[in-house]
Amino acid sequence: MSFLFSRSSKTFKPKKNIPEGSHQYELLKHAEATLGSGNLRQAVMLPEGEDLNEWIAVNTVDFFNQINMLYGTITEFCTEASCPVMSAGPRYEYHWADGTNIKKPVKCSAPKYIDYLMTWVQDQLDDETLFPSKIGVPFPKNFMSVAKTILKRLFRVYAHIYYQHFDAVMQLQEEAHLNTSFKHFIFFVQEFNLIDRRELAPLQELIEKLGSKDR
């Protein structure tokens, strides 16, 4: 199924909703409330008595929605012509493979790569065996490795936006929104050690800057 970007909706893919009234919905509300306190280091911590997998699942869905919206605002600037390869600056280039439909990594444009990536993430989030939304349904043994792969790939969208489209972000006056979202994302993956340091290298300087402001 393919979804066209609509300027009015400002999201790249349909938003993934957590069912209202569910425990995960309560966790999301808790996350939003603690985020409002302004202390991001505290906001990302596992709430007392909660299941780690469930906390990571809720936040992964939230980051997907945030990146979906952020990328949605700049899709008109990210084209086959402007971004013929998926990169984060001159030193980092990403080729797409999902292990099932595309087994061998393929070089493709940034919009194509991000479309593949967001569609793939959406499929994982919609899979009830991977991301169970019902109370009492256990998370699979491979959940953590799937969540890590999702977050590693979502990071690449942030990296691409920062390197190739930050001018457009500033023009749209979205930089505070992007920086807050990315800072939240980074503090979260650092708290639970979810992305390898090498993968974060393209934005290492920015990550250090965001972290030092919070010490």
Please report which band the strand proportion falls in: under 5%, 5-15%, 15-25%, 25-35%, 35-45% or over 45%: under 5%
Q: Kindly identify the CATH topology.
A: Butyryl-CoA Dehydrogenase, subunit A, domain 3
Overall pLDDT metric: 87
Helicity range = 40-55%
Look at the helices and sheets and give the structural class: mainly alpha
Major β-sheet profile: 2 strands, antiparallel
Question: Can you count the beta strands?
Answer: 2
Low-confidence stretches: 1-10
Q: Domains counted in the coordinates: how many?
A: 1
Q: Could you name the CATH homologous superfamily?
A: MOB kinase activator
The helix/strand order is: HHHEEHHHHHH
Instruction: Give the strand line-up of the largest sheet.
Output: 1-2
Q: What would your notes on this structure say?
A:
- The chain is mainly α.
- The chain has a single domain (23-212), classed as Butyryl-CoA Dehydrogenase, subunit A, domain 3, CATH 1.20.140.
- 53% of the residues lie in helices and 2% in strands.
- The protein has helices spanning 23-35, 40-43, 52-74, 110-126, 143-164, 166-171, 175-191, 197-200, 204-212, and strands spanning 86-87, 93-94.
- Zn(2+) binds at residues 78, 83, 160, 165.
Q: Topology of this structure?
A:
Elements: H1 23-35, H2 40-43, H3 52-74, E1 86-87, E2 93-94, H4 110-126, H5 143-164, H6 166-171, H7 175-191, H8 197-200, H9 204-212
Antiparallel strand pairs: 1-2
Helix pairs in contact: 1-3, 3-5, 3-7, 4-5
Question: Which features would summarize this protein structure in a list?
Answer:
Butyryl-CoA Dehydrogenase, subunit A, domain 3, 215 residues, single chain, two-stranded antiparallel sheet, globular, 9 helices, mainly alpha
